[in-house]
Inverse folding.
């Protein structure tokens, strides 16, 4: 019997705010343990939480970017459980009335655009961090109370590779929207996986297994590559899978059982009595909508359509947003944007990397690159000369025209002058003339190179080729 995997992902994202969710403590990574804390985030008796408005806005903004509904009213609940890193013995989260729900994420996978439905993006708080030593353990509560958004997908994902593509696309959306820095090394993005298997064609889902402890998207992929065959092996041999939570051991490359999976009622959710329902006004929503941005996939598709760029070039400008913005300021001014893309990707980016400069440190104006492209396209300089001009332009900031005129680099397009150079090249290389007559096409390129050498690279290469070919055939 053939089986298929059914996968849903719960992605936890720390929001890009200056302070924590319920208090004024700094939302900052790397401080000494237990220094960014106060009675509120430590859960001491008698304290009252006050919601971070920026965290509310970022959560709703995420919902809008993912085409979610934003209900007229949402509320916060207490999710009750005991862990050493949860000082209150409960987590403030959203249960049955989240801030956003019913959205979709579009992303590219296997050469086409796929969709995964988004169940909800809701707001909660992070917990502290357990730190284990040789013989003791400690808890650092600096992270406790940091605004944490959970993006829950529907079980629309069918493979480990698709899960990684979804997570990468979601991360891009969150970074484009300014929702989170998404630094996985700092724990700003974590993911839990829910996976089951079933016979192909069966509508009913299998037992849902949750996998925790994955600190990278590649870890998610490796965990699924192990867990899916493990489940298929159990059921194909007549065994029974039960709902449970497993942990991923990245070193061993296996999942291990942790506990039976809790259901919602096990957490004894109830509305937080200290927090009013969240009911955004139209004016408040308008402020959030003003922060909407073009999403990465839409940007890529627009660059391909508007500027006739190949997919890899457009992808480069999506991945490096600042470089893409720079390209676009120039591309709208020229007839052939692809030529600009070549200079920006192949030349400008390499020079910036070599020199350690960013776009803000460039000495030449954006108009200079337009000028350089036009000099090449109208035949005033060759592509080879243009490389030399660009290098000088990058170092000095001088305009391309000034460099070309100052160094006498203007391309020679005088047919009579080029014809004389061709005659010289043929006379000096009679063997190549005979080789061409004998059917060796490479001889033409050799002679063309000799003409360019005689002209010190200034001859119009297209005109050189035409004249040489006419002479050799005659």
């Amino acid at each position: 019997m053939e089986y298929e995997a059914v996968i849903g992902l719960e992605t936890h994202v720390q929001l890009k705010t200056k302070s924590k969710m319920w208090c004024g403590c700094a939302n900052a990574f790397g401080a000494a343990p237990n220094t960014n804390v106060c009675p509120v985030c430590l859960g001491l008796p008698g304290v009252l939480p006050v919601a971070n408005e920026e965290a509310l806005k970022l959560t709703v903004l995420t919902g809008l970017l993912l085409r979610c509904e934003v209900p007229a009213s949402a509320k916060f609940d207490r999710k009750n459980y005991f862990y050493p890193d949860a000082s209150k013995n409960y987590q403030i989260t959203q249960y049955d009335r989240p801030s956003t729900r019913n959205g979709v994420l579009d992303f590219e996978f296997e050469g086409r655009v796929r969709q995964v439905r988004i169940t909800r993006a809701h707001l909660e708080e992070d917990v502290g961090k357990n730190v284990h030593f040789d013989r003791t353990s400690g808890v650092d509560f600096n992270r406790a109370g940091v605004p944490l958004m959970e993006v829950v997908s529907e079980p629309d994902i069918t493979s480990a590779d698709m899960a990684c593509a979804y997570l990468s696309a979601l991360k891009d959306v969150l970074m484009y929207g300014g929702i989170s820095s998404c630094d996985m090394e700092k724990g700003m993005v974590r993911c839990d996986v829910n996976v089951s298997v079933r016979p192909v064609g069966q509508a009913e889902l299998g037992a849902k297994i949750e996998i925790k402890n994955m600190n990278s998207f590649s870890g998610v992929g490796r965990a699924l590559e192990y867990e899916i065959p493990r489940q298929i092996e159990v059921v194909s041999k007549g065994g029974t899978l039960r709902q449970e939570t497993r942990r991923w051991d990245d070193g061993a490359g296996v999942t291990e059982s942790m506990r039976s999976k809790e259901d919602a009622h096990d957490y004894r959710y109830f509305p937080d009595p200290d927090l009013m329902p969240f009911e955004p006004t139209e004016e408040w929503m308008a402020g959030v909508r003003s922060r909407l941005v073009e999403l990465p996939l839409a940007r890529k598709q627009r660059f391909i359509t508007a500027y006739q760029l190949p997919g890899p070039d457009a992808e480069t400008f999506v991945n490096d947003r600042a470089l893409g913005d720079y390209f676009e300021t120039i591309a709208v001014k020229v007839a052939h944007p692809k030529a600009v893309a070549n200079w920006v990707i192949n030349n400008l980016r390499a020079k910036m990397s070599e020199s350690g400069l960013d776009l803000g440190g460039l000495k030449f104006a954006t108009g200079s690159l337009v000028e350089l492209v036009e000099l090449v396209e109208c035949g005033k300089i060759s592509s080879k000369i243009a490389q030399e001009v660009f290098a000088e332009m990058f170092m000095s900031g001088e305009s391309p025209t000034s460099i070309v005129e100052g160094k006498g680099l203007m391309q020679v397009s005088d047919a009579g002058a080029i014809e004389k150079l061709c005659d010289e090249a043929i006379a000096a290389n009679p063997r190549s003339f005979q080789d061409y007559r004998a059917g060796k096409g490479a001889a033409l390129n050799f002679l063309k190179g000799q003409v360019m050498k005689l002209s010190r690279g200034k001859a119009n290469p297209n005109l050189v080729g035409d004249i040489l070919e006419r002479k050799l055939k005659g």
User: Anything to note?
Assistant: The chain has three domains: 3-289, 296-407, 415-473.
